[in-house]
Amino acid sequence: MGRLDKYNVELKGLTDANSTYNWTVDQEFFGIVEGQEVQRGKVNVDLKVTKASGVYHLNFSVNGTVIVTCDRCLDDMSLDIENTGELKVKLGPDFADDGDIVVVPEDKGIVNVAWYIYEFIALAIPIKHVHAPGKCNKGMMEKLDEHSAEEGDEGEIEDTGANDHRWDALNSLLDSDNE
User: What are 9-66's pLDDT values in tens digits?
Assistant: First the structure.
């Protein structure tokens, strides 16, 4: 038995028109899946499977907490997520994934939903993830402030008057060309 076999959904064996599955995924799951976005967390997954006109509709609902890296201070941060999504599956001669419908071999009639669960979790994570104001790593924020340009009221970067000596050699070339 594989490490992700508990996420197999046996389509041919479904006796009810509606079947439900529930899992809680955690560090073990994220370690096995080896995705880039999430390595830790605890997320509840609910799956409802319905069959209509030879197509199985797999409706996912994920909610829980994942640990991601703060974009500002690079410390880990806890992020609450919630997402829903649908996957359409039908039985056919060979496995195929054309984006809209996943085809699984009819002789097996099983679809493993582990990667789809991971994708629905990853899609729930906002593009920008930062700590709440005042919660970032104070040491990192001090370093960031030291090396950041100051912004004015309208968001424009203000010239602080400090001369960055790394540019002196290039500026002297520009000055000699203008003479």
Answer: 988 877 667 889 999 999 999 999 988 888 899 999 999 999 888 889 999 999 999 9
CB atoms inside a 10 Å sphere around CB 88: 13
Question: How does pLDDT run across 116-144, given as a tens digit for each residue?
Answer: 999 999 999 999 999 988 889 889 888 88
DSSP the chain: --TTGGGEEESTT--SSEEEEEEEE-HHHHHHHT-SS-SEEEEEEEEEEEEETTEEEEEEEEEEEEEEE-TTT--EEEEEEEEEEEEEEEEESS-EE-SSEEEEETTT-EEE-HHHHHHHHHHTS-S---PPTT-S-HHHHHHHHHTSPPB-TTSPBPP-S---GGGHHHHHHHHHHH-
The residue with tokens 């319905």 is 50
User: Given phi > 0 = left and psi -120 to 50 = alpha, else beta, which region is 27?
Assistant: alpha
- Cα separation of 119 and 58, whole Å? 14
Domain boundaries, the chain: 5-123
pTM of structure: 0.76
Question: Residue 51 forms beta bridges with which residues?
Answer: 56
